[in-house]
Specification:
Oligomer: single chain
Structural class: alpha/beta
Strand content: 5-15%
CATH class of the largest domain: Alpha Beta
Largest sheet: 5 strands, parallel
Order of helices and strands: EHEHHHHEHEHHHEH
Number of strands: 5
Length: about 200
């Protein structure tokens, strides 16, 4: 069984994933894979440079994420180009890593744009959304990533609306309280998923 874990920016996906990992559940993080694929010297970075020019490479040879973020949020064609290069590579790596953990009772893939891309519908058994109030999303994202409110809202605009995400979810964890509360809910889902598998 494969669970697709998702949620808007600042919802607490990564914290929920950390708790699942502590419970012994294999978690494949699409964002971490994207960072690996765009590290200095990686073939994906060469392809991005060919598509976007030298500005996409930072001084240390890695991906210039700040420049690219601004580019894709202001240019829909650039966003499609980026996704066309990275998404197939990320998916292939996710599939490979899922195969390595095939003996686990269930596995999780964490994909921020799980519903938006539609690229993982054939892989997942159930979807789990980490949800919180929009104002809380914004404040958390600003504190964590040192982004301005307009920058956070621009990212949110690339994600499906909260109502859409909740309507598509098989399971929901509401993360608007303490870390202890989040852990309690994750443990409940863990018990449920383990029971579904058995």
């Amino acid at each position: 069984m494969i669970i697709g874990l998702t949620g808007g920016i600042g919802s607490g996906k990564s914290e929920a994933a950390r708790i699942f990992t502590a419970l012994g559940v294999p978690v494949v993080d699409s964002d971490a894979i994207a960072h690996e694929l765009t590290a200095a010297g990686q073939p994906a970075l060469t392809r991005l440079a060919a598509a976007f020019g030298a500005e996409v490479i930072a001084a240390d040879g890695s991906l210039n994420r700040v420049w690219l973020r601004k580019k894709v949020f202001s240019d829909r064609a650039a966003k499609q180009t980026l996704e066309g290069i990275l998404h197939p590579l990320i998916r292939a790596e996710i599939v490979a890593r899922l195969g390595a953990d095939a003996d686990a009772p269930y596995r999780i893939i964490m994909v921020p744009l799980l519903f938006e891309t539609g690229a993982y519908a054939d892989l997942i058994t159930r979807s789990l959304v980490i949800d919180c109030d929009e104002s809380l999303q914004i404040s958390r994202a600003m504190a964590r990533s040192r982004l301005t409110e307009p920058e956070v809202r621009a990212i949110m605009d690339t994600q499906c609306f909260r109502e859409q995400r909740l309507a598509l979810a098989d399971d929901v964890i509401v993360n608007d309280d303490s870390l202890e509360n989040l852990e309690t809910q994750v443990r409940a889902q863990h018990k449920k998923y383990s029971g579904l598998h058995s």
